[in-house]
């Protein structure tokens, strides 16, 4: 059996300092995301979403960022899923990007809200047909008898909607409105760089260095 306790890696690719980082965390994120895309990191848009339900148990899953702007970061999903139910009861969440090849992590926390119907419609209509049918076919997070249930549902809705499936009422987008960011850059000897951005009472971003 492999001894995982002895696995080691020295992080030496880059550094992150206050003078070279943006005062605006969204701009810093945009720069790092673009570098991950240009560096051909596998699935640079994949992010871990953490939510907490009424039972106070946290849960995580990987979703894909589909847009971002000054307001926040957007993804789309089934509102009736476990994460959707948890967000309905507790509209605060955390996101994390881990770009292994670049030795970088970005963590974001904040309140979550649904995007507008127009935004959800526009993105839904841009998806491939099979993905649009899949949004109808999958009762996400519910127990099903087997894969045959999904196949049968897809066939049913495919025959019903043909080439123009509408957006399901239970499917759409969320936007996380950040109030805290952390950028982590791996460094040698485990003396990693960590810059945290938090908002003061006036909404101004305060940048701070954290011990690794």
As a whole number of angstroms, the C-alpha radius of gyration is: 20 Å
Q: What is the fold-level CATH name, i.e. the topology?
A: Pnp Oxidase, Chain A
Secondary structure category: alpha+beta
CATH class: Mainly Beta
In percent, how much strand structure appears in the residues? 25-35%
Helix content: 25-40%
pLDDT < 50 runs, ≥5 residues: none
Number of domains: 1
Measured between the Cα atoms of the first and last residue, the distance is 31 Å
Please describe what this structure looks like.
This protein has 212 residues and is α+β, with helices and mostly antiparallel strands. The chain has one domain: Pnp Oxidase, Chain A (Roll), CATH 2.30.110. Helices cover 26% and strands 32% of the residues. The chain has helices at residues 25-38, 82-89, 117-126, 129-137, 147-161; strands at residues 46-52, 58-64, 67-68, 73-78, 92-99, 104-114, 171-185, 193-199, 205-209. Strands 1, 2, 3, 4, 5, 6, 7, 8 and 9 form a nine-stranded antiparallel sheet that branches. A hairpin with a 5-residue loop joins strand 1 (46-52) and strand 2 (58-64). Helix 4 (129-137) packs across helix 5 (147-161). The two termini are 31 Å apart.
């Amino acid at each position: 059996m492999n001894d995982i306790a002895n696995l080691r890696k020295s992080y030496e690719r880059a550094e992150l300092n206050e003078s070279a980082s943006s005062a605006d965390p969204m701009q810093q994120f945009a720069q790092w995301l673009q570098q991950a895309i240009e560096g051909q990191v596998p699935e640079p848009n994949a992010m871990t979403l953490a939510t907490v339900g009424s039972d106070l148990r946290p849960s995580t899953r990987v979703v894909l960022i589909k847009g971002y702007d000054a307001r926040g970061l957007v993804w789309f999903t089934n509102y009736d899923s476990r994460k959707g139910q948890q967000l309905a009861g507790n509209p605060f969440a955390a996101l994390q990007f881990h770009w292994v090849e670049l030795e970088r992590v970005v963590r974001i926390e904040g309140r979550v809200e649904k995007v507008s119907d127009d935004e959800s419609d526009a993105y839904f209509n841009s998806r491939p047909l099979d993905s649009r049918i899949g949004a109808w076919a999958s009762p996400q997070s519910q127990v099903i008898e087997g894969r045959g249930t999904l196949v049968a549902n897809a066939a049913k809705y495919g025959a019903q909607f043909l080439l123009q499936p509408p957006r399901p009422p239970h499917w759409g987008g969320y936007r996380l409105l950040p109030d805290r960011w952390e950028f982590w850059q791996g460094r040698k000897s485990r003396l990693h760089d960590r810059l945290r951005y938090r908002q003061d009472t006036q909404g101004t971003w305060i940048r701070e260095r954290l011990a690794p």
